[in-house]
Design goal:
The chain is mainly alpha-helical. It contains ten helices and no strands.
Length: about 170
């Protein structure tokens, strides 16, 4: 039953994605700098950019996985909820909700037999408690950290990286 599953904290969630998606983005940006024979300080800055871009990307992707439009995502609404993925929107929703709202979310969480109606009700509860706004704010926080890594740069390369970053966090549901 979903109530028996350990729900991580937001800190645990960030640590988890730092070891996955953020690490992938970090290495990708670092390798680009290394291949360009950049100085160590530039490699470090681009590593930081990649790590924070990766976190912002994953947070946004997780939001889309819970609340995204199936026509865009090609996945059913609430698919991550049904699969029991411990994504930030779900972690926050379970930890912030109370009473009947929490029961509705937990009924759908990790329940492959949850009905379409159960999932829709859970997603509606998640929307009603303001999770989208909270999660978007977190993604923007990491996007700002990524932008700060680029402060000492100028020109078209910086503009392209910022454009990528903006796309990542502003993707629509």
């Amino acid at each position: 039953m979903a109530e028996e599953k350990k729900i991580p904290s937001q800190v645990d969630y960030i640590k988890m994605i730092e070891k996955k998606t953020a690490a992938l983005f970090d290495v990708s940006c670092s390798m680009g700098a290394i291949c360009a024979k950049a100085k160590q300080k530039d490699i470090s800055k681009l590593s930081s950019f990649g790590r924070n871009l990766g976190i912002a990307f994953q947070i946004t992707d997780d939001l889309i996985g819970v609340m995204g439009d199936p026509k865009v995502t090609k996945k059913p609404v609430g698919n991550d909820l049904r699969e029991g993925k411990k994504s930030l929107p779900i972690v926050l929703a379970i930890n912030k909700s109370k009473g009947n709202d929490k029961k509705i979310i937990l009924k759908a969480f990790g329940n492959s037999r949850a009905s379409k109606k159960d999932i829709e009700k859970a997603v509606e509860v998640i929307r009603s408690i303001g999770i989208e706004k909270i999660v978007r704010k977190q993604a923007l926080l990491y996007a700002e950290k990524a932008k700060k890594s680029l402060n000492s740069y100028s020109g078209s390369a910086k503009k392209e990286l910022i454009s990528l970053l903006d796309f990542v966090v502003k993707r629509s549901l």
